[in-house]
Automatic annotation (TrEMBL):
Gene3D superfamilies: 1.10.287.370. GO terms for cellular component: cytoplasm; prefoldin complex. It comes from Enhydra lutris kenyoni (northern sea otter). Belongs to the prefoldin subunit alpha family. The gene is LOC111158017. CDD domains: Prefoldin_5. This is Prefoldin subunit 5 isoform X2.
């Protein structure tokens, strides 16, 4: 995100770009004003900013998301360990039931 804002350093009157259409399809386009950009601030809202302001916005957003990831990482690791323990317990139970079923089948024969 942040690297795409460096377009003002190119000193071009127009800049070719790909515009996102329908979240998956990109079409070619030209950026006529490289000093001002339109950025997606979320939930369908767009804000016009200068290239420098857009860089600052993306830097703050990256910092915020990095901090949020650092906050939730310990909880995710704990949940992963719990999931592994449950999977191991289920595997043991399945093995016990399979062995019990095989023992009963040989006892009937």
């Amino acid at each position: 995100m942040a690297q795409s804002v460096n377009i003002s350093e190119l000193n071009l009157p127009q800049l070719e770009m790909l515009k996102n259409q329908l979240d998956q399809m990109y079409v070619p386009g030209k950026l006529h004003d490289v000093e001002h950009v339109l950025i997606d601030v979320g939930t369908g809202y767009y804000v016009e900013k200068t290239a420098e302001d857009a860089k600052d916005f993306f830097k703050r957003k990256i910092d915020f998301l990095t901090k949020q990831m650092e906050k939730i990482q310990p909880a995710l690791q704990e949940k992963h360990a719990m999931k592994q323990a449950v999977m191991e317990m289920m595997s043991q139970k399945i093995q016990q039931l399979t062995a019990l079923g095989a023992t009963q089948a040989t006892a009937k024969a």
